Amino acid sequence: MAEERTPLLTAKDDTESTYVNVVPNKGPGNYAHDHTTSQVIKDTRFAQDSSGSGSTDVRENLLYEPYDGPLVTRNPYLRQSSSVAEITQPIYLSWKDINVYAMPQDRGCCRGPPKGAEPRHILRNVSGIVKPGTLLAILGASGAGKSTLMNVLTYRNQTKNLVVQGDVRLNGVEVGKNIRNMSAYLQQDDLFIGSLTVREHLTFRALLRMDKRIGKRERLQKVEEVINELGLTKCANTVIGTPGRVKGISGGERKRLAFASEVLSNPPLIFCDEPTSGLDSYMAKNIVQTLKLLVSKGRTIITTLHQPSSEVFEMFDQLLLLTEGRVAYFGPAKEALEFFTGENFQCPPNYNPADHFILTLAILPDSVENCKRRAESICNSFEKTNTCKAIMEDIAKVMDTSSTGHNLSSEFDSSRYGAGWFSQFINVLWRSWVTNVRDPMVFKAKIFQTCVISVLFGLIYLKTNDEYNQNDVQNINGLLFLLLIQMTMMNLFAVINLFPLELPIFLREYGSGLYGVDVYFLSKNIAELPAFTIFPFTFCTILYWMAGLYQAADNYLILCGIIIFSANIAGSFGYMVSTAFSSVNVALAVAPAIITPLLLFGGFFLNNSTIPDWLIWVKYLSWFQFSNELLSINQWKDVDSVYCANVTDYPAPEGSPVCGSGTAILDGFDFKEDNKLLDLVVLAALFVGFRLISFIFLVIRAKRSKA
To answer: Rounded CA gap, 137 and 149, in Å?
Structure first.
């Protein structure tokens, strides 16, 4: 094999640099690794003639840890152009004696678990090691413990009733939850903002997730490289789409986009949870080929798969078979058949080896005891093999190594986020705005709802002047309150129906350290502010002049301001309900139940002077009450005469009987003009209070999320 020259250290002067390759005698670089072509593990060191006499001092290159993956030739002065090939540091992932217990569930009401209930042993003494440049596939029947092991290794999706014991290390160092900063986790379900294009999505990820030391131009260049390398060029400008709503890219392209999203951050360690689920055999093979491409650059990849085809099985470097929470086989995939043949479980000719292994280790319902005895026998036999003993020796060597662990902390940024707060805010705000603007279904529905309903209300309450009789008083007051209800319901249910759908994406991106809760919440609020302003303003503009409300420009503008304020409070209430409940259906059921009593205390159905003292506090939670009072004052304070019901001509003839005034109408509802400042203060407090409570709920959900 030709010697590689990798100048990861440069001289401080212009002296010509030379490189020598040294075969290390110890350390994790000694561990053999199975490739189709054998390679010598070498450590690149920098050699320089420091005295000018021809003698060379060799000093170890501490920025490069040797690994037995494919070697990549680099230009001595230019950065590697291929983003897929750039590996900061190879990673050895090892785990030893992993035991997981599912504790019995409490029966509630402080009664504890049922009597006689015992913990269920999910994983039993599972150990293993994965080396750089290796694709490890975890196979097993349903209930074998594949997902549990993956969750333990990634420190994700672990529920409270699980007790985990064991040791997980990277390059011999315990990193705990910090493994998230050094790895990528591709979960089974792909979550994307469907209104973004592929290029926009990757650009968004690159600006927020890549190393802070990389400039914007380099980030955008890396996006184009990843698009080209992972076969996304044809769909780069296509919207991702939302299944069942907006047509977008295909299922295979979505999977490759998920890989591209994680490769941007240059992780040396990648976990994949059933990346081929839901794909046909051709697309599944294509996805595994993508994994092999990533592995060929020195990455460490662990994946769980469900019934891989024989062609896919041939691509695996290492294979881990689980049954009943134990290791049935762990080693080179090509040697698994030999092991099972030695146990008298020979694979039939022209039969998929993966299916043979899974069926052999499966626990069938009609012969549970026999299947368990067979699985236990296979697991016990594997523990006695030289392969198992060699793996345990490799694990012990890696866990005893500390020098590589020292470099781990320096090579990876320990901070949770890859971008600063302001950069997070700008990019998340941009995405939130694009999402609102590009959602054609919602946008068209809002326009239709605003225009049609406002015109309908205007026709029902049609009045071409602002002279009022007693019949008009009832119509106007009813219209003002109906306007409040309409704006509340339109904005409340718009938030409840849409905001929870985006929450899973937020929780996953927050869990991966893309941005903070405050950034997301603030950006979401600001991005939706125009919609909460323009549509209520349009509604009021159409209705105001059709319904014959008090015809003065300042009164019109004040009414628009009050309605816009009320619409935003309703949106705040919608955020609070949406973040409090994880289900859209539950939120839709709870919201009307809370709105109904608030409507009753809105000053229209129940006079303020008759509210029982022990329920007076409910009034201060009802924005209907204070908005209705402001609207009524704005409408009636300048009306001097209200004619009797029999006066229908316009303008009213001289001497027409007057039955009241605007002040009398306000007194009838117990509305006082002196309360305007109090009304505004309470409305502002409700707006801020609802948003603050919803933010607290969102923080709690984010902290508790297992995504």
So the answer is: 12
Three-state DSSP state, 180: helix
- H/E run at residue 658: strand 658-660
Q: What is the pLDDT of residues 380-412, one digit of tens each?
A: 999 888 988 988 888 888 877 654 444 554 455
How would residue 70 be classed by pLDDT, with cut points 50, 70 and 90? very low
DSSP state letters, 565-586: HHHHHHHHHHHHHHHH-S-HHH
Other beta carbons less than 10 A from residue 44's beta carbon: 21
Q: Is 397 left (phi over 0), alpha (psi -120 to 50) or beta?
A: alpha
Q: What is the pLDDT of residue 116?
A: 64
* 466: pLDDT strictly greater than 90: no
CA dihedral 450, 452, 456, 459 (to 10 degrees): 100
Does residue 437 carry a pLDDT above 60? yes
- Crossing angle of helices 470-511 and 584-600, rounded to 10°: 150
CA atoms of 417 and 516, how far apart (whole Å)? 8
φ and ψ at residue 494, rounded to 5 degrees: -65, -40
* 119: its two tokens: 């913990």
Q: Which helix (H) or strand (E) holds 304?
A: strand 300-304
Q: How confident is the model at residue 427 (pLDDT cuts 50, 70, 90)?
A: very high
**Structure-model confidence comparison of residues 8 and 437, the more confident one:** 437
3-state secondary structure of 106: coil
pLDDT tens-place string over residues 271-320:
988 888 877 888 888 888 888 888 888 888 999 988 888 888 888 999 99
Dihedral, CA of residue 79, residue 80, residue 85 and residue 89, to nearest 10 = -30
Neighbours of 367 (CB within 10 A): 11
Burial class for 118, CB neighbours closer than 10 Å (0-12, 13-18, 19+): exposed
Residues 566/683, Cβ–Cβ less than 8 Å: yes
Per-residue tokens: 644: 């009797």
**DSSP string covering 449-505:** HHHHHHHHHHHHT--SSS-EEHHHHHHHHHHHHHHHHHHHHHHHHHHHHHHHHHHHH
The Cα–Cα gap between 517 and 524 comes to 11
The per-residue pLDDT for 483 is: 93
pLDDT value of residue 445: 81
Q: What percent of the chain has pLDDT over 70?
A: 82
pTM above 0.90, yes or no: no
Structure tokens at 164: 């985990």
Q: Taking a C-beta distance cutoff of 8 angstroms, is the pair 98, 128 a contact? A: no
Q: For 558-592, how does the pLDDT look when each residue is reduced to its tens digit (9 = 90+)?
A: 999 999 999 999 999 999 999 998 788 888 899 98
For residues 16 and 7, the answer to whether their CB atoms sit within 8 Å is no
Structure tokens at 377: 């026998």
DSSP 348-383: PTT--HHHHHHHHH---GGGHHHHHHHHHHHHHHHH
Secondary structure (3-state) at 48 = strand
Q: At what angle do helices 440-460 and 517-546 cross, to 10 degrees?
A: 30
For residues 434-447, give the mean pLDDT. Answer: 80
